[in-house]
Structure formats: structure tokens, C-alpha cells
Write a sequence for this structure.
């Protein structure tokens, strides 16, 4: 045989023989001599197979084959084809030992040969892999996967446009769901994941081959990975030490997770959705939202591995999914919202610009929908909680300036006006939005009060603090607490106490901007607080909350000027407690109690010794004679508790306060002057019910403009019948407003609006100017008129009606341009 | 030895427990697995048959009927050449679901896909859906119809052969021969190797 070999060694000769063999139709005729007559590469290939498959690859001959294929790379494709055919035949005959050897040989050739010559060989290699994958033998499938992984790690420099991987994706995905029994199943599933990982690695970096991001593939890959992760309890473990396990001991959930991370990490913006859609679908179908640990885990994985700039897409997609699920049970929605709240923080760091408000807006609209649809269900409540949490989480991770923006944004979403004939849904929505506001507020760290409270935020907030619903007022106070408190004094000041020296308060001299702020807006704030103390629906909690707000203001903004203002307010409150006609007695006691507490607190903080002494004297006296005028606040007082009016010596005396202040070098003239709270007009009942906005307006604060707007915009509009009957702010008219069916009012309003716009559409500018000119004087007159009518009529008005009054002229704001004049 | 001329992908769908896996097993392995559990996700089998002296390779994707796997199973519809929609003749609900399945097929499969309606388990005594009802339904929706028994091996071979023939006919007509021979094409050069291998069987 060796003789034959050397004789016919040249390829040309062997080709001749080959053609001879072709003509030979009887397979048996030339069997003896074939091995000598075949082409050389075939002989090399044949020689690597041992007689007995258990012996494994013949190493020496394999080296020869490798050397041969390196030296004549043009033969490589034929070698591959030949090996494949041999293996295919062996599979058919179930001689798996030889198949394994063939595969091993191919692996070695693949690794050994240079990239540029591989292209054609790879075709047979992949055919071989496919062939093995098609067999039902688990062992071969696993072997094939290993080879495929090896192949995927090779860098090919020639692109192959026609190569397709859809079979591999399909098959590997099927393997991930292996239906085998016993140990083989886990192995096959693991192999399936490895295979998918390899496909992804191979294709993701190469634009020229198949687009792995097509939904066809992603719909297979993603559920397969998830399916392998969801079965194990491993995701319940807290630790994320993925890099510890060595490659070969890795279990399928872990590997699937690694693969998932890789996939998500490589996804570009356009592809994220292709990954997320099957994820959401999978959760829906496998009912994995409730309980949601797995969902949280997966979404965390996604958020942590996604390229940061795309992370908000995940939030958006999840939000959209919430939309799609608007019909499903509240528990599912709660779970989704919960997942959202868990991952939203990760997104917050990266989202900028409009996407932030978009997310907030979407959350709010979900809240609104939820409020609209289910008012009293417990599940629905939980859902709302979850949404608010998500909101809070999100806000928590935004920079501070954006938090203010968000608070203002939420504020703008709160339905106005706050009248008491609102639908329950409206009320609920208001309180829910306030809750979200509070949530955001608690995450916010105030530095300068004037940046925390822009007028456009402060004003509606204060207006909200006069809402008819006590719970809502409480919420507003809480928002104020969290925003005002900068030195964590909230804890100490939550309950009124007369022992303020014992409180470990953190004090700091207030900065100039803060003082400017309080000078500018203090009046408005005090006034709102004062007015809200007049509400007879106040609970103890409300009153305490207002105390806390005042105390915090006092602590944060202690200065000579604010002290006077605060004292003025305190005296005003005392006055209210003494004179008010419609506050129930326990509330009056409560007011006295907080007056005492505040008085002590103020004198302590301002460090005015005579005042402190005076305060402690009063406290001592009250302790002895009238403990009901001191904290703690109670809702029911012992029947023998006497009204403070009858105990004048226990009441803080304005004159005395002035004296002490003067003696300490404070300018107490302001305190002496007529107080806006009626302190100077002791016993004048009209002082207790004032229209706060008009009042503050008169005091020249910044909100003068909105105040006039509301009261007078229609009357300053030219050429219209100056006022409708509804606008006469008398008691009768107010009563009418309340009793009249709203339709009539609306009609009148609409008519008037039409008239107005008609005039402004048709009249010339000059005409308009003439018409408006004289109104400036009229405006003043009108204002005065209103003030007068207020002071006469409002005695009989409850605060609720006052709110009503606000509500009437809202439509007038449709024409803000009228105020350009 | 790339020994087939045509490659067709066949996907089986239908409610859980109608016998999809058993049909496939019967056809590919010639056995009836008695205690066959529910399929998870997708299972894959291959079988080469001969039609008109041509070898035809059938890639059979056997999908899970359970709803929770719907996302993964649907992704296999698209590349299918033929879809076998199976119901259980002794179980009315499996028949009632057929319109839903058709809707899914409309949505996810290609429009040219060959659709076959199969009523399985005709070996059972407690038939609930008479043959003509199934026939009717199939006719209305432009599908082939066949009743089979995986247990008794009745009509199973016929079912797949029919599919193979039909698809081959289709492929010939459209001249789509060997379309999507998934990974590779046989080049002219390698086919010469094919021819010379007559003796290699002995090695």
C-alpha cells in the first residue's frame, strides 16, 4: 500500500483514479484499493479515526491533518465537507463515538486555521453543528452547542452575507425549554442558553449578518432566558455576586441572567423595545406580576445593564404597559407600579429634560384614572399608594431644582377650585395629589426658602391650606413642615409644649435671602395659617400641625422683624380664641394652648429675658388655675373648664408684651399698631372673618395682583355690563349662588364671556382704549366698594362661603391680557 | 451527504392535551408515549421522507398548548411552511377554541402558510365532535382536514406525507426549490465530492 501511495501521490494522478472510480458503478468492485486511490485529503481525514471509537481521536494523524490543511488551505473546504458527510452517515447509523471524533477534529481545524481561509470551511462546520442539533441524542446536542460556542468566539474577517442563524436561534430556544427527563434536561437547557449567548455574541457585533434584534428572534430568545430564570429561587437571594461562580459550575438561571445582561447591555435605543416587549408579554402570560419579586429582579437586571442613556425607555415602556393593563385587576397594576417604583430610581439619575416631566405626567394621569374608576376599593388604594411611592422614588433621585419643578407641576395638576360641592372623586384626587406632593416634598432638601417657595408654588399651596376638607388641610401643613424644616427640628416641634427650653432645637441665624423672603411673603403665609385656624372643622391634628408650621417658621426665621410679626399673629390667634363666635369651646382651648406654646417658644428663641419671664409667669399661672389652656390639646375638656375670657389675668396682654419688647430694645410700634388679625380691635367681631386675600393685598404684598384679578377683572373689562348680579358680594347674593342651580350661572357666565370676546374681537384699539381709560379710577372705587361690602356682609359668612367666593370668578382668568392696561 | 432536496418547517398548534406531541412522536419515532407530560415551550423533531423519489426533510416544531407559553410558541409560527391545528374529537372545548387559534395564526403566521385541521384521538369511544363538523369547519376556513389517532397510528403517516407532497408541489410551482436550506447551499464543487463517495460507505 505504501508503494501505491508513493506512486500516486500527486493530486493529478489521484484525480484520474477518482474519475475511474466514478465510472465504477458496483460499490464492491474496488473496495480493496480505494483507500489508496482516494484523494490525499480524504486519506488524511480517514486516518484520524481509530478502529475503535472508544480510543478517541488519533492525535498524531490529527496533527498531520492540521498541518496539511495549514499548508494547503484551498483543501480546507473539501476536508470540512468530507468530515461532515462522514459524521452524517455515522449519525444515521448511530455510531456516535465517531461523530464525536469528527466534531472534535472540526473544532481543532477551526481553531488552528487562519481566519481568511475559514469561510467555506465554516459552512460545513455549521452544517455539522446543525446535524448534531437535529439528532435526538442529548449528548450530541450538547456537543454541538459547545462547538458552536467555540465557533462564536472566533473572529471572522470575511463577512458572510448568506449565513443564517434562525435555525440555531429556534433550536437553542427549544433546548432552553427541554422536555427531557432527569439530569439531561438541565444539561440541555444549559446548553441552550450557552447557544443563545453564542448566537447573540456572534451576531450582535456584526451588522452584516442577521439582525438578531428582529422580533422573530427576540421573541424566542428573551422568553427562553426568562423561563430559565424564573424557576429557581435564586433571584430571591439578595446578593449579586455573579462573577464568583466559575464557568463550568454555573447553573442555568445564573447563566441566563448573565446572558440577559449581555443582551440588554448591547441593545441600542432602537432595539430596547424589541427586548422589553417579550419580557412584558412573558410576565403577563406566566402571571409573574403577582407576586412580583421576579419582575422586580428582572427589571433591576435590565436597568442595571442597560446603557444608561436609554434607561428611561424602560420606565416609559413599563408605564405604557400599565396603560395596557388598565382593565386588569388592581393587584396586577399595583404590582407593576411597585416594580416601577423599585426601578424608577435607577432611571432618575439619567433622565433629563422633558422625559422627567413626561414620566411624572404619566404617573399622575395613572393616578387620576385610578381615582376616576375605583374610589372605595382597597386594592385600588394600594395601587394609588404604589404609584405615589414610585413618584416619590423618582423625585428622590432628581436634582433639587427639578424637584421644585415637579412640585409645581403636581400643584398645577390639582383640580381647583376647592369648593365643598366637589365630587368625591375630585376630593380624593386632590388629596392624592397632595400626598404625592408631600412625598416629593419629603425628598427635597430646602436650602433657601425663596427658591423652595416660588410665588407660583406658594400661592396655590396656601390656597389649598384653606380647603374645606380637614384632612387636606392637614396634608398641606405637612407639606409646609417638610419644606420649611431645614434643621430637623420637626420631631421636637410636632406637639405643642410650653417647655421649649428643654427641646434640643437646632438653630442658625437666618440668612438674608430668607429674611427677604419672609418679609415679602410672610404676611401671606401668616394670614393663611390664621384663616385656617378659624375653620371650625379643624381637628386637634390640624391645630397641632398649624402650630408646628408656625414653630418651624419661628425657628428657621428668627429675627427681630419676624419675631414681631409672629407675636402679632400669636396675639391675633389669642384674640380669635377669645372672641370668635362660631368656634367650639374645646377648639378655643386648643388655640390658647398653642398660643401659650408659641409665646414661650418665641421668647426663648428670641432670647428676650423679660418676655421669657412673662411667658413662664403666665404658664405657671395657667398651670395652677386653668390647665386646659395649656397643651396637650384635647378634644373634650372637663366641664368645669372656664373660658379664658373670664380669666383675663391668664391671657397674654398685648400692652405687657409691648413693654417688655421695648425694654429689650425692640421696636414694638408695629405691634402696637392695628394688627391685621384684629388684635388691636379687641372685641370687634368683624376682625375675625376677613377675606384673607383682600387683606394681604391691602397690605401691599405681592399677591395684590391676583387678588384684584379675581375680584375685579370683569368690572375692569370695558364695554360690558359691568357686573352680573352674582358678583355683588352681599350675603344675599352669596346665598343665591349657593342655592341657584349651577346651569343658570353657567349660562350667564358663558353669555358674558361671549360678549367680552366679541367686543375684543370687533372693537378697534382706540375704542378699547377709551373704554378702559376711565376704569382705572373705577377700579379703585370698585375695590373700596367691595371692601366695604365685605366688612358688612362677611360677619355672617362661614369660611366655606369664602371659598365659594373664590370659585365664582375663576372664568375671568380666561382673559389675562385684559390686565395689560 | 446533504441528502435532501427540500426542507419544510411544520408547526403543530392546538390546545393543551390534544395530542400534538404524540402525533409527532408517532410520526418521527413510531411510538406512542403513554404518559406523555405537557410540553414545555417548544420541542423539535426532524424526519426525512421521500416524495416522488425526492428526499424531503421535515423540521417539526411541536409547541406547548398551555397558554403561558404562548409568547414563545407564537414566535415559531412565522417561519412555518405548514401549520397543523390539532383538536381532540372527544373534547368539545378544544374544538371551540379553534377560532381563537385561527386568529392567532392570522396574526403571527405568514399568509401563505399551509393550514391543516386535525381531529385527533379517533380511537376514543366518547366522540363529541362528529367528523362532518370538523370537515365543515375546515372547509369554511380553507384548510385541509384529517382525523387521526396517534395511538393507533391511523392517518398519522398520511398527514405528514400529504403535507410534504403539498409543500413540494407549492415549492416546485413557485420555483422556490431548496428555499431556506437554513444554513448552507451546496456548491457545485462539493457536489462533485458527493458523487465520488460511492465507496466510502465501506469505511
Amino acid at each position: 500500500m505504501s508503494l501505491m501511495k508513493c506512486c500516486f501521490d500527486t493530486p493529478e494522478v489521484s484525480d484520474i483514479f477518482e474519475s475511474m472510480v466514478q465510472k465504477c458503478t458496483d460499490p464492491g468492485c474496488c473496495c480493496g484499493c480505494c483507500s489508496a486511490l482516494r484523494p490525499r485529503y480524504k486519506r488524511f481525514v480517514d486516518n484520524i479515526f481509530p478502529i475503535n471509537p472508544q480510543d478517541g481521536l488519533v492525535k498524531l494523524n490529527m496533527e498531520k491533518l492540521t498541518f496539511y490543511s495549514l499548508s494547503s488551505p484551498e483543501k480546507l473546504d473539501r476536508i470540512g465537507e468530507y468530515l461532515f458527510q462522514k459524521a452524517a452517515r455515522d449519525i444515521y447509523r448511530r455510531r456516535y463515538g465517531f461523530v464525536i471524533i469528527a466534531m472534535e477534529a472540526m473544532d481543532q481545524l477551526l481553531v488552528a486555521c487562519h481566519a481568511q481561509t475559514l469561510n467555506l470551511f465554516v459552512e460545513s462546520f455549521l452544517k455539522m453543528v446543525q446535524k448534531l442539533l437535529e439528532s435526538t441524542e442529548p449528548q450530541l446536542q450538547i456537543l454541538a452547542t459547545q462547538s458552536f460556542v467555540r465557533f462564536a468566539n472566533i473572529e471572522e474577517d470575511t463577512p458572510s452575507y448568506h449565513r443564517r442563524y434562525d435555525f440555531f436561534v429556534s433550536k437553542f430556544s427549544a433546548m432552553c425549554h427541554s422536555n427531557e427527563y432527569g439530569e439531561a434536561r438541565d444539561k440541555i437547557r444549559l446548553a441552550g442558553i450557552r447557544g443563545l449567548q453564542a448566537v447573540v455574541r456572534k451576531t450582535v457585533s456584526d451588522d452584516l449578518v442577521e439582525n438578531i434584534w428582529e422580533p422573530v428572534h427576540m421573541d424566542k430568545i428573551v422568553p427562553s432566558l426568562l423561563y430559565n430564570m424564573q424557576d429557581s429561587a435564586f433571584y430571591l437571594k439578595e446578593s449579586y455576586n455573579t462573577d464568583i461562580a466559575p464557568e463550568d459550575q454555573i447553573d442555568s438561571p445564573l447563566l441566563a441572567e448573565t446572558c440577559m445582561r449581555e443582551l440588554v447591555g448591547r441593545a441600542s435605543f432602537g432595539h430596547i423595545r424589541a427586548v422589553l416587549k417579550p419580557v412584558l408579554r412573558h410576565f403577563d402570560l406566566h402571571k409573574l406580576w403577582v407576586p412580583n419579586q421576579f419582575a422586580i429582579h428582572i427589571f433591576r437586571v435590565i436597568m442595571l445593564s442597560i446603557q444608561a442613556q436609554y434607561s428611561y425607555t424602560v420606565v416609559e415602556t413599563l408605564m405604557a404597559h400599565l396603560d395596557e393593563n388598565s382593565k386588569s385587576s388592581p393587584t396586577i397594576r399595583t404590582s407593576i407600579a411597585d416594580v416601577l417604583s423599585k426601578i424608577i430610581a435607577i432611571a432618575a439619575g439619567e433622565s433629563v429634560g422633558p422625559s422627567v416631566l413626561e414620566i411624572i405626567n404619566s404617573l399622575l394621569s395613572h393616578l387620576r384614572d385610578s381615582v376616576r374608576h375605583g374610589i372605595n376599593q382597597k386594592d385600588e388604594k394600594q395601587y394609588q399608594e404604589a404609584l405615589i411611592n414610585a413618584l416619590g422614588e423618582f423625585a428622590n433621585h432628581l436634582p433639587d431644582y427639578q424637584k421644585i419643578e415637579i412640585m409645581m407641576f403636581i400643584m398645577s395638576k390639582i383640580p381647583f377650585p376647592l369648593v365643598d360641592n366637589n365630587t368625591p372623586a375630585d376630593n380624593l384626587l386632590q388629596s392624592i395629589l397632595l400626598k404625592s406632593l408631600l412625598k416629593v416634598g419629603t425628598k427635597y432638601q430646602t436650602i433657601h426658602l425663596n427658591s423652595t417657595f416660588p410665588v407660583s408654588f406658594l400661592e396655590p399651596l396656601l390656597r389649598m391650606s384653606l380647603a374645606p376638607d380637614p384632612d387636606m388641610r392637614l396634608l398641606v401643613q405637612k407639606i409646609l413642615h417638610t419644606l420649611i424644616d431645614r434643621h430637623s427640628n420637626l420631631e421636637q416641634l410636632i406637639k405643642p409644649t410650653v417647655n421649649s427650653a428643654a427641646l434640643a432645637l437646632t438653630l442658625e441665624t437666618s440668612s438674608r435671602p430668607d429674611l427677604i423672603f419672609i418679609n415679602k411673603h410672610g404676611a401671606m403665609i401668616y394670614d393663611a395659617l390664621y384663616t385656617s385656624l378659624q375653620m371650625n372643622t379643624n381637628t386637634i391634628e390640624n391645630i397641632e400641625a398649624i402650630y408646628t408650621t408656625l414653630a418651624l417658621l419661628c425657628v428657621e426665621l428668627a429675627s427681630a422683624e419676624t419675631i414681631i410679626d409672629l407675636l402679632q399673629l400669636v396675639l391675633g390667634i389669642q384674640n380669635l380664641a377669645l372672641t370668635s363666635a362660631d368656634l367650639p369651646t374645646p377648639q378655643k382651648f386648643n388655640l390658647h394652648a398653642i398660643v401659650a406654646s408659641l409665646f414661650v417658644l418665641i421668647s426663648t428663641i428670641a432670647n428676650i429675658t423679660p418676655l421669657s419671664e412673662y411667658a413662664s409667669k403666665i404658664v405657671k399661672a395657667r398651670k395652677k388655675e386653668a390647665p386646659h389652656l395649656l397643651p396637650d390639646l384635647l378634644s373634650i375638656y372637663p366641664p368645669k373648664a372656664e373660658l379664658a375670657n373670664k380669666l383675663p389675668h391668664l391671657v397674654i396682654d398685648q400692652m405687657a408684651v409691648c413693654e417688655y419688647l421695648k425694654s429689650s430694645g425692640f421696636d414694638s410700634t408695629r405691634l402696637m399698631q392695628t394688627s391685621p388679625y384684629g388684635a388691636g380691635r379687641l372685641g370687634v367681631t368683624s376682625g375675625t372673618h376677613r377675606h384673607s386675600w383682600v387683606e394681604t393685598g391691602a397690605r401691599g404684598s405681592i399677591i395684590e395682583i391676583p387678588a384684584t384679578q379675581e375680584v375685579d377683572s370683569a368690572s375692569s373689562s370695558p364695554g360690558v355690563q359691568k357686573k352680573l348680579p352674582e358678583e355683588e358680594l352681599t350675603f344675599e347674593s352669596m346665598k343665591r349662588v349657593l342655592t341657584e342651580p349651577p346651569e343658570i350661572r353657567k349660562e350667564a357666565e358663558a353669555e358674558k364671556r361671549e360678549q367680552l370676546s366679541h367686543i375684543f374681537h370687533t372693537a378697534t384699539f382706540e375704542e378699547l382704549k377709551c373704554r378702559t381709560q376711565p376704569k382705572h379710577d373705577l377700579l379703585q372705587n370698585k375695590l373700596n366698594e367691595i371692601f366695604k361690602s365685605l366688612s358688612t356682609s362677611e360677619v355672617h359668612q362661614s369660611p366655606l362661603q369664602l371659598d365659594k367666593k373664590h370659585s365664582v370668578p375663576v372664568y375671568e382668568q380666561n382673559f389675562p391680557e385684559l390686565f395689560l392696561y | 451527504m446533504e441528502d435532501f432536496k427540500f426542507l419544510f418547517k411544520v408547526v403543530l398548534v392546538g390546545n393543551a392535551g390534544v395530542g400534538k406531541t404524540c402525533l409527532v412522536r408517532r410520526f418521527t419515532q413510531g411510538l406512542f408515549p403513554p404518559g406523555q407530560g405537557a410540553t414545555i415551550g417548544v420541542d423539535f423533531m426532524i424526519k426525512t421522507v421521500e416524495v416522488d423519489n425526492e428526499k424531503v426533510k421535515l423540521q417539526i416544531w411541536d409547541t406547548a398548548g398551555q397558554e403561558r407559553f404562548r409568547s414563545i410558541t407564537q414566535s415559531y409560527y412565522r417561519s412555518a411552511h405548514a401549520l397543523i391545528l390539532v383538536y381532540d374529537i372527544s373534547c368539545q372545548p378544544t374544538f371551540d377554541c379553534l377560532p381563537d387559534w385561527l386568529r392567532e395564526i392570522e396574526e403571527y403566521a405568514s399568509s401563505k402558510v399551509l393550514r391543516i385541521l386535525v381531529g385527533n384521538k379517533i380511537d376514543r369511544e366518547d366522540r363529541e365532535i362528529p367528523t362532518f363538523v370538523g370537515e365543515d369547519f375546515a372547509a369554511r376556513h380553507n384548510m385541509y382536514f384529517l382525523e387521526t389517532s396517534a395511538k393507533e397510528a391511523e392517518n398519522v403517516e398520511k398527514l405528514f406525507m400529504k403535507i410534504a407532497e403539498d409543500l413540494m408541489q407549492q415549492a416546485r410551482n413557485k420555483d422556490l426549490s431548496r428555499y431556506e436550506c437554513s444554513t448552507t447551499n451546496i456548491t457545485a464543487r462539493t457536489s462533485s465530492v458527493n458523487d465520488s463517495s460511492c465507496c466510502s460507505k465501506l469505511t
Q: What stands out?
A: Residues 14 and 121 of chain B are 13 Å apart (CA to CA).
